[in-house]
UniProtKB/TrEMBL annotation:
Pfam families: IRK, IRK_C. It comes from Sus scrofa. The keyword rRNA-binding does not apply. Belongs to the inward rectifier-type potassium channel (TC 1.A.2.1) family. Residues 192-246 form the Inward rectifier potassium channel C-terminal domain. This is ATP-sensitive inward rectifier potassium channel 11. Residues 47-184 form the Potassium channel inwardly rectifying transmembrane domain.
Amino acid sequence: MGRPLPGGRWSHAVPQGHHPRGVCADAAGRGPTEPRYRARERRARFVSKNGNCNVAHKNIREQGRFLQDVFTTLVDLKWPYTLLIFTMSFLCSWLLFAMVWWLIAFAHGDLAPGEGASVPCVTSIHSFSSAFLFSIEVQVTIGFGGRMVTEECPLAILILIVQNIVGLMINAIMLGCIFMKTAQAHRRAETLIFSKHAVIAVRHGRLCFMLRVGDLRKSMIISATIHMQVVRKTTSPEGEVVPLHQWTSPWRTVWAAITSSWWLPSSSTTSLTPRARSTTGTL
């Protein structure tokens, strides 16, 4: 039986052990281990939190264009590949010129002790190992003093000049590449942090997407600008579906240097419900 409530309403008591028909049907259709509420499926981020685009380039034609700008290609490579190329460039140059020095000594007859000419092209070269050590001494300018080029062979003098020039070019390119990788601009962005949460609220009569930006370093960034790219699925007036439509939203600073706001245009606010407009989201 029911009992009266204030205002002329009645409350119907449910006997113990009995449940409404709708509740029983819902419980019967749901398994014992099935959750009542399912979490929303999280999509993969198009842009990561550090600013990298989560896009894989496949089936790229004319990949030979990357070799037209070798320096930029080396800078864009990952660190393991860059260090591998750095090491192999020196090793290959040492081995190449070691072979050249060994051939010069072999052609001049310096490898056979007691049978060669009285004055060798390069002193103290008797095998490929000694030629390899001499190649390293020439290119790195160690100068131990045990091996040296004589004036007996003009070709040896020419190879000495060529190896020094090639060694300087390899040093300039590879050391410059390492310096550029360590001094890239995105490294500076590691000390620029954003607030963990963002808020959508009304400012000056318009909905505003607000977050905080802070710089951890004491050195200030002069004339810093902030741009926000919005990527969303849109449909053109002709009916074409654009899955990744990008547009730049105007950015405005509301408070001192660490707080900024992004003004939402009317086209974006129409899709927000009142509940969504007042919630706080995690970046």
